[in-house]
Amino acid sequence: MATPETTVGQVLLARIEAQAVVLAGLDDAVRADEPDAVHRMRVACRRLRSALRTFRRLFTPGATDELVTDLRWLAAALGGARDREVLAQRLAAEARELPDECEPQRVAAALERWGEAEYREVWPEVVAALDDPRRRALGEALATLLADPPLRRRAARKALPELSRIAAREQRRTAERVRTALAATPEDRSLALHEARKAAKRARYAGETAAPVAGARADRYAARMKAVQEVLGEHQDAVVAAATLATHAPTGGEPFGYGALYARQLATQETARHRLPAIWRRAAKRKLAHFG
Question: In 21, 80, 84, 231, which residue has its Cα 20 to 30 A from 152's Cα atom?
């Protein structure tokens, strides 16, 4: 927990150091294609980038711009394999729940074969990213930042008031995105909901950063933002799955089964949209961001 002397800069650097350690320790696991290794490395990249962006005013202007860009690059390089893997697993699991007339096992098997082929097609991109000099430079840049942090004077402010202020700002940012998404036309809705999901994730990470010093209050904030992120993630996953089924459904399955799966994605999207307002109300309470 925070002491009166704890500064917001100290809290931020602790978060960056913890995630930098995670990132540095995963190269071998990713190369070996160990279960969940790509996902964990990608999440570490996202948490680091989010910390650098959310708390950017604590750093001297421009000091972290290149690092943010490199973290985005590495996450994107990892994302191709991870996204295809998750999509195929999700659709195959749903396929097994289809009625017998949809030939669920045949559809699921076709989806699994497709997912494996897609994963292996993009896997060389993951290895190439790890071998890229840019990957080593990223690790060195994180070490340099931690050894000689380019912090501004405001980083010396007391932690809890600053963390509360930042959490409230991210909460307002998410609220604006959620309002925009709920009011969007059908043509713009999916993109707007996706933007709201990204805002909720950034707010969640701000809560995670505060948790070591703010305790249960920050945990509660992060949990409620995570709930918003997850319902919006369900919507986005269904959007991507529907688009995949509509444009290049795997061969070898039953067309009727693919059609049933497509209909399920549309239903999932609608359900997620209807659930969002109630979940957001719990995350929108003003006192939620008061950690002090």
Answer: 21
Angle formed by the axes of helices 216-248 and 186-214, nearest 10°: 150
**CB of 149 closer than 8 Å to CB of 13:** yes
- CA quadruple 227, 232, 235, 241: dihedral sign: negative
Hey, which bits of the chain come out as E strands?
none
Kindly report whether the global pTM for this prediction surpasses the value 0.90: yes
- What's the rounded Cα separation, in Å, for the pair 15 and 220? 18
Residue 274 tokens read as 């209807």
CA distance 12 to 58: 9
Dihedral-angle region of residue 74 (phi above 0 means left; psi in -120 to 50 means alpha; beta otherwise): alpha
What is the widest separation between alpha-carbon atoms in the chain?
Answer: 67
Cβ(190)–Cβ(239) under 8 Å? yes
Give the type of residue at 43: V
34 φ, ψ (degrees, to nearest 5): -70, 150
Helix (H, G, I), strand (E, B) or coil at 158: strand
Are 44 and 23 in contact, with CB atoms under 8 Å apart? Answer: yes
Angle between helices 133-147 and 65-95 (to 10 degrees): 120
Would you give the DSSP letter of residue 98?
S
Q: What are phi and psi of 32, to 5 degrees?
A: -80, 0
* Successive 10-residue mean pLDDT values, the chain, 292 residues: 80 97 96 92 97 97 96 94 88 94 91 90 93 97 97 96 97 98 95 97 97 95 98 96 84 80 96 97 96 84
